[in-house]
Amino acid sequence: MHLFTRFVRNLFVSFLALVFLLLALEGIFRLARKEDALKLSMGRVDTKYHHTFMPHAVMHLTSHEPGEYDTMVHINGEGFRGPEMTVEKKPGIPRIFLVGDSFVFGVGAEDDETISVLLQEQLATAGLSTEVVNVGRGSTSPLIYYLRLREEIPKFKPDMIVMMLDFSDLWEDWNFEKNLVDDKNGEMAGLNPYYEYGHFLLWNYLRANSVFASYVHNKVVRTFLQIQKLGLRKYCQAVLEGKKVKAVIATTREDVIAYDGRLFLRGEEKAGEIRRHFERTGKYILMSARLAQQNRIPFVLVMYPYGIQVGPEQWGKGRVSWGFEEGKTYTDPFSFDLVAGFAKENGIPFVNLTEDLRRNAGQMLYFPYDGHFTPAANAIVAQSLSRQPAVLEALAAASVH
């Protein structure tokens, strides 16, 4: 009995020591990795929409590459980036929802340099008074757009929806789908990052709420999975040659969407995989379009290129980490044509912004390492959207409605 008591006591002391060690590591990592700690403190985890912003949040965003950008972000009381707004619309002024991910949100841009603000200004210059709401959030996709629109349309009653499709969306939709949870009727209730395929996972909870656990996952767990996928010899070879392992996997293996967040950019080279995974993304786009139609809201789908598709110097350095060559312009139209065909088949107005951006390729339109639009590109996109027949026709219909 004495030995058992000693064993239990030692086990309890060891457990306490482990808890204190983990808490100490968490404190150290929060101090050392302030940007990751900021993400947690701003309430990015959301058990219904995977992640979101806390109302009235103020964030200081800087590029991982020193000196690339340094901006302040203000979230209004309704959880959108930009100036304060009321739930009730202003009489006679159409409310446009500009839906998208970090490009729409405006990574690298000040509040008054985002596409939404500049589009509202461009339309006002043309004599069209509107309220353009920045419904952009980083690391989101058509699956999340649909879930949010389902809740936000009845509340905010937008008169028009412009959805901007990103080349990360195939991967994002694939990645988020495993977090879907259903209600008691078997309907989609939301995206809970703590769950996978309907089951709660403690590790997911820790990753979402602990800087230390997130670091371990990104640096240790992912490394193990990469070795498992590529093989130890090829993994070591890639590291010794200074290559990004994810780029090696993405460009040499089949069915690698788990490792290739830019599969959609590969074009004809990965046509079969892109078609297969776009079926998922297309389904969620169509769900949003039909939701808009049910509420008599004009819906426009927009697609924009990445830097590699605009000019050889655009996104000049960061592209390498995804396996794209420096100094080359990628002109394969496969993915654009795929989406254009999907939109035409389903009666959705479609806009491709590639040519307008290529005409201005002499400017720095994409940050060299980060790859997001620069404020100059945001201005070009806003101007282009303000002149697109599909957008103006939808706005005219919205005004009538």
Short recap of the structure:
Helix content is 47%, strand content 13%.
Write the layout of secondary structure elements.
Elements (H helix, E strand, L loop, with lengths): L1 H31 L1 H8 L3 E2 L3 E2 L6 E5 L7 E5 L20 E6 L1 H4 L9 H11 L5 E6 L5 H15 L3 E6 L3 H9 L2 E3 L5 E4 L3 E2 L2 E2 L1 H8 L1 H20 L1 H9 L4 H8 L18 H24 L4 E5 L30 H12 L4 E3 L1 H5 L16 H13 L1 H12 L1
Parallel strand pairs: 5-6, 5-7, 7-12, 12-13
Antiparallel strand pairs: 1-2, 3-4, 8-9, 10-11
Provide structural commentary.
- By secondary structure, the chain is α/β, with parallel strands linked by helices.
- The chain has 2 domains: 54-201 and 262-400, Rossmann fold, CATH 3.40.50; 210-255, no CATH class.
- It has helices spanning 2-32, 34-41, 102-105, 115-125, 142-156, 169-177, 202-209, 211-230, 232-240, 245-252, 271-294, 334-345, 354-358, 375-387, 389-400, and strands at residues 45-46, 50-51, 58-62, 70-74, 95-100, 131-136, 160-165, 180-182, 188-191, 195-196, 199-200, 299-303, 350-352.
- It has a 5-stranded parallel β-sheet with strand order 6-5-7-12-13, sandwiched between helices.
- The chain is globular.
- The mean pLDDT is 88.
